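chain below, 527 aa
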Amino acid sequence: MNNRALISVYNKDGIIELATFLAGAGWEILSTGGTAKYLSDNKIPVIDVSAVTGFPECLDGRVKTLHPAVHAGILACRDEPAHMETLEKLKIETIDLVCVNLYPFFEKVREGLTEDATIEFIDIGGPAMLRSAAKNFNDVVVLTDPEDYAKVIAGLTAGKSPGNVPVELKKRLAGKVFNLTSAYDASVSRFLLETDSPEAEYPLYFPLSMKKGPSLRYGANSHQGAALYLDTSSGGAISGMEQLHGKEMGFNNIRDMDIAWKAACAFSGAGLEQYIPGVEKMASCVAVKHNTPCGIALGDTLLEAFEKTHACDPVSIFGGIIACTVPVDAATANKLKDIFLEIVIAPNFDESALDILKKKKDLRLIRAKKPPSDEREFFSIDGGLVVQDTDRKLLDKWDVVTRASPAPEDIPDLVFGMRAVSFVKSNAIMVIKDLAATGIGGGQVNRIWSTEQALERSAAVTGADNPARVLASDAFFPFPDGVEAAAVSGIKAIIQPGGSINDKLVIEACDRLGLAMVFTGTRHFRD
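prediction:
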């Protein structure tokens, strides 16, 4: 009895080399549809699967290999006499190698096809054959990744039997099958639940489908390993980033890039035009260090936005990341080159800017092609994930709760501040002037410390003669002490969610000190 291989692949990379080797070693090759034609066109002898099943392909190719003559030939345990007797009785021959890769559902689900068109790229027969072969890995070699073809060829070179392939390799190849099919099924599940069942946003089993991305240098610390995985269904902004220059990424770089790009893009398409006239035409710039902004600003030009961002905290920006929403020009690049930065992210870079920045050999230059798109956020816990909706809402209301109202010229800064402070680690306070943070306090365990930190930083930036007038808080003030500190520093208007049991005391403090306060009804805690 000849060894038999079943080959049915969508991705034909390397398949001629594998099939040529097998045919040369005396193997019979079974195949289907387009793969059979491709192999025949390349002078490789092929037996059509329908000759084995006695049944033609049907239903526009939906049914090809779903037949006992295929699956019994794969699943039979060769050292189980009853199995082999059954095959002999049914005149079924064993299949000793299965090479299958799947319809490109991962890619097609991102193309925005109609639901019916997308469903046609859900592979049924391919995963079924792979799973059968992987279950019976002791007797069957299973391949789904072209990167593994050479390893199997090397194992078979010693002889014609699948037994010449080390069992450790066969087991690992089987594990790769279930790794692939679980991700594939999760992607299909997510597509169907999101398409047909909005109420199943948080299903009983959460369908995560991730594929390993570019290698990372190390984790948060150099002794920790790390890997980047990207969503197969959407990919998100990170998958659309192209590194133009600089050294390999690390875990911290990826996390900082994520928050930097999200914060930089937060002022576009967010419905802010009614509060900040012309915002859609402005350049946004943010500096991030240790996963939290240390400067953020809007400007009519990128140079203006960057200079305001840098002024907020020229110390902490050292070793940080800059993200901006317009192409980097030469004028801005000349400023950036004088600072030690890890990464600069932008939609593009002028050629002159690239020439300037590439002189810094380690500086990573990232071209961002996609806006942030994540609808959910994931946080690991020991043994699981916590999943939540992405915080996209700005405010529920605009409720002036004090006797004084904000001056019209302060409203753009109030709204800018509430949007920007939502990217700072809680407890988060931001002092704002002219659509730029002048002081940021975050990551403290009480709000007064964050307030004092932000006010102190702002005073150093603006000077005593022209202090910032606006302060934003990501959550309510639990006590009047924050308001009192703000008034001493020259703040005239505060924006915050409200909702404290001490709101009345906080409002009374504002009225006593002549401050305006706006409640938004929307909290913006960030881990």
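DSSP finds 19 helices and 21 strands in the chain. Residues 167-196 form the longest helix (30 residues).
thats it, cya
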